[in-house]
Each structure stands twice: as structure tokens, then as C-alpha cells.
Inverse folding.
């Protein structure tokens, strides 16, 4: 069974998702299935996706819903808890974290306002666990004025993400951009139609050694040079 097949068999609360999201979810969340995962979804909708996540992640999962609407409290059930508050309110978010611990996964399907998405990300992402996953969906709203969006408008989360690509690669900028905490604690960014996924993690020392082939005949001298930085002994300019 997959999330896609599960949703087609849904007889519980309403689930409202773009259908191309489901392969994205499984690609990035599959390693957490049947683990004691803490999963946070911002924006509860009609409560169906909370039940979907509970079924997908299994009996050890803790599903946390965040919403501004007090009526969403009725979605609470075994393994599902609801916290009522503004997603951009960092005091509220800190209070939630104090109660539930640090989430392994965050899905932002909340207000879709650009300032809210950015405020939530800026607060939660740096606090996430080493191998955490942060997903923001419905980013087509970044192009819609009613959500503070617009093509190439600097404050949209799409434009924020474009700048974060530079931060992700800051160590290769030859001093033009100093590495940030985002640089040091992000393994990758994945872009899809209306979705961006951030994978947290940290690299060991970055280098590009060579194994086998002619390297075996070059000897210790080349290997020693390779330890100083990739390419220094193989015809490429070393990193400055």
C-alpha cells in the first residue's frame, strides 16, 4: 500500500491535496515509516490529512496539527494532537516545541501567506533535528498577490529559496559568501511544482578524491595533495 492508494480508499475525514504531491511525500518521508516520528503539519484543513499521516507513519508516530481555528481541536484522537495558534507567532511555536519536543518532519500547509511561511521557517528550521525534513507546499501562492506573492517579488518564499541555494553552496563561493548555519546544517534542497523540501544534515570534510585507475600509479605524493582539497593534483585549480 502507498499513500496514493490509501487516499483513494479514504472513508474518514476529507483529504484535500494536489495529486502530484503524493510521490514527493513518499520520496522524502519513507525512511520515517514505522519509526517513533514526531510529525508536525501546519494547517489542519478538514482533519483528513492528519489521519492520513497517522495511517502512513504507523503506530509509533506522533502527529501534531497546528491551526488558528479553534474548531480544529475536534480532530484530536489517538496519536493526533492539535495546538491552536498563529503559525507565525514564535512564542506559540516555542510553547508547542516545549510540549512535543523537536519535530522530525514539518509540513507547512498553513495560511500560505509569504510572511507567515518565512517566519515559521526561520523559527522552526534551525531548531529541527539533525536528519529532519521540512516541506513547504502550495507555493504556487508565491505568484499570487492575495498571498503577498508576485513574480520575482523579493519577499516571496520562492525568492527566499533562490537565495538559500547560494547559502547551500557558500563554501564554493571563494569567499564571496561566508558559510551560514543553513550551509552547515542542510544536506539538500529539492524543488517541485509548488513544493520545496529541505533535508537537514551535515557533511564531513568536503573533497573530491579519486580511487582506482591511474591514481594507483601516482602514489603517495598525489594522495597527500588530494587531502588539501579536491583537484589540487589532478589538473584542476584548488579551492581558495
Amino acid at each position: 500500500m502507498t499513500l496514493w492508494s490509501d487516499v483513494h480508499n479514504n472513508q474518514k475525514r476529507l483529504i484535500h491535496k494536489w495529486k502530484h504531491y503524493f510521490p514527493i511525500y513518499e520520496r522524502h518521508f519513507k525512511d520515517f515509516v514505522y519509526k517513533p516520528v514526531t510529525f508536525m503539519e501546519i494547517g489542519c484543513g478538514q482533519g483528513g490529512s492528519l489521519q492520513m499521516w497517522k495511517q502512513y507513519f504507523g503506530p509509533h508516530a506522533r502527529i501534531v496539527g497546528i491551526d488558528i481555528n479553534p474548531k480544529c481541536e475536534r480532530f484530536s484522537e489517538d496519536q493526533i494532537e492539535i495546538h491552536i495558534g498563529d503559525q507565525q507567532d514564535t512564542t506559540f511555536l516555542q510553547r508547542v516545541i516545549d510540549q512535543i519536543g523537536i519535530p522530525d518532519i514539518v509540513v507547512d500547509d498553513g495560511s500560505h501567506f509569504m510572511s507567515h511561511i518565512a517566519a515559521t521557517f526561520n523559527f522552526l528550521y534551525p531548531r529541527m533535528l539533525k536528519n529532519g525534513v521540512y516541506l513547504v507546499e502550495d507555493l504556487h501562492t508565491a505568484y499570487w498577490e492575495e498571498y503577498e506573492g508576485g513574480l520575482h517579488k523579493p519577499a516571496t518564499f520562492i525568492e527566499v529559496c533562490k537565495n538559500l541555494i547560494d547559502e547551500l553552496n557558500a563554501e564554493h563561493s571563494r569567499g564571496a559568501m561566508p558559510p551560514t548555519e543553513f550551509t552547515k546544517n542542510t544536506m539538500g534542497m529539492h524543488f517541485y511544482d509548488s513544493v520545496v523540501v529541505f533535508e537537514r544534515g551535515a557533511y564531513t570534510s568536503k573533497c573530491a578524491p579519486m580511487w582506482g585507475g591511474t591514481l594507483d600509479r601516482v602514489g603517495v605524493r598525489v594522495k597527500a595533495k588530494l587531502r588539501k582539497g579536491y583537484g589540487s593534483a589532478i589538473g584542476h585549480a584548488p579551492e581558495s
In short: The CA atoms of residues 110 and 171 lie 33 Å apart. Residues 157-168 form the longest helix (12 residues). DSSP finds nine helices and seven strands in the chain.
